[in-house]
Amino acid sequence: MSATTLPQVLKQLDAGERPSLFLLSGDELLIRRSSDALVAKLLTKPSPGFNHVVLEGASASDVVREVTTAPMFRGPKIVVVRDPEFLLSKKGRGDALAKIKDAWSAGKRRIAANRILGLFAKAGLGVEALAAPDPGVLQRELGLDLEAADIAFLKSMAEFCQTEGIGAPEGGAKAFEDLLGKGLPEGHALIVEATQLDGVSGLVKRLKKEAVFIEQKVERELRKLDIHDLAAELLTPFKKRLSPRAEERLKDLCGGNLRLIQGELEKLATYVGAERATIEEDDVTLLVQRVREEEFREVSDALGARKFRDALHYVEVALDQGEPALKLHGAIASNVRRMLEDRARWSRLGLSPRIGQRDFEARGLPELERECKERGVKVPHPYVCWLGFQACMRYELGELVRGLSAVADADVELKSGGQARQTLTRMLVRIVRK
């Protein structure tokens, strides 16, 4: 089934339709709220723990076992599965170990153990590998960059698994595939919440096709991100509202991390107290720290688009939030070097800024693939390469050389006691302005 929206699904449920299989993917806060809305519609007489079951860290066999078990009381049974490892991507999940640590710290040790074993199982690893973690293998197979504390943590989890008799997940995803083939028992429904699905998994593709699929991603571009409705809804219980400038400031500081925005809004609502109904920009500036993770991508986008104001805004806000000037300088320098390298390569191949994406991929990608192979690095996605090509082609080769000279001058100035704001501003002028 093609992706749909929550309002459309709720409307269908109100009309009497009763699908049995739902797949929610995207931002954790959004899919959790959507899941709660679906449960409220599907479960006529809520009986948490009996007719409504929530599974975390569950294997495919655990899910099938729960879904096929009769409810304690008469009526429909709803099973909600949160981030099942057998459906999640193997690599590229920056929060994979963080979520496991959070569960462990919260006392949910069995859930944490099931999650780590489910993750390890994707690489064909079991409890033995958990007891003696090999950082090289785990980085290569699962994309995990382990520090000494992480290795000690994994060993502690191994001891817990051995003490509790917890082993690798049973049967892989075969049991779940069989369930999809047979269908769920009448009156039962399964809601799968997954933040990062494995896009190449045949099981995930089949699930997307057979389930009611609701995708709820957060806009990556800050200028397109809209948090107005979410903020209004979250502040309603507090009888508060955000002023337009406060909303923009909060968005700028938190980005698309909606779970973080929820926590900050609750903090802000408590801070302004009963005296005021409106949260102002100064309140946000006082209480909220810059914590969004898109900074490097944003400065890269600004430089690639030759948007001086956007690049300067990034620098000014980051400095206001206490970011070291040399760290900001390093991020900008890295972008200029990369664009210079790209511009030189494409110029050498005779590629014009006016060629289309298809011609670029036909003529440019083979050379890039050969180069990456020689250097032993992974070839970027073709579309990412195309965006990089467009960015560097907005500059002449000589302009990027002069930009690199500006970076070098700023480096000397910063390390000689120069004023950070003025130095970085001058550097941006020399790089971006035509």
Give the count of helical stretches: 22
Main beta sheet: strand number and arrangement? Answer: 5 strands, parallel
Order of H and E elements: HEHEHEHHHHHHEHEHEHHEHHHHHHHHH
What is the total number of structural domains?
3
* Largest beta sheet: strand ordering: 2-3-4-1-5
Residue fraction in strands: 5-15%
Number of extended strands? 7
Q: Which regions are unreliable across 5 or more consecutive residues at pLDDT < 50?
A: none
CATH superfamily of the largest domain: P-loop containing nucleotide triphosphate hydrolases
CATH architectural category of the largest domain:
3-Layer(aba) Sandwich
Termini separation comes to 49 Å
Bulk shape: globular
Mean pLDDT: 86
Helix percentage: 55-70%
Description:
By secondary structure, the chain is an alpha/beta fold. The chain has 3 domains: 1-217, P-loop containing nucleotide triphosphate hydrolases (Rossmann fold, 3-Layer(aba) Sandwich), CATH 3.40.50.300; 222-287, Helicase, Ruva Protein, domain 3; 295-432, Zinc Finger, Delta Prime, domain 3. Helix content is 58%, strand content 8%. The protein has 22 helices and 7 strands. It has helices at residues 6-14, 28-42, 60-67, 96-105, 109-121, 127-131, 135-142, 148-164, 174-182, 202-210, 228-235, 244-254, 258-272, 281-287, 295-304, 308-320, 325-348, 357-363, 365-375, 382-392, 397-415, 420-432, and strands at 21-26, 52-56, 77-82, 188-194, 212-216, 241-242, 278-279. The strands form 2 sheets. Strands 2-3-4-1-5 form a 5-stranded parallel β-sheet, with helices on both faces. Strand 2 (52-56), helix 3 (60-67) and strand 3 form a beta-alpha-beta unit. Helix 21 packs antiparallel against helix 22 (420-432). The mean pLDDT is 86.
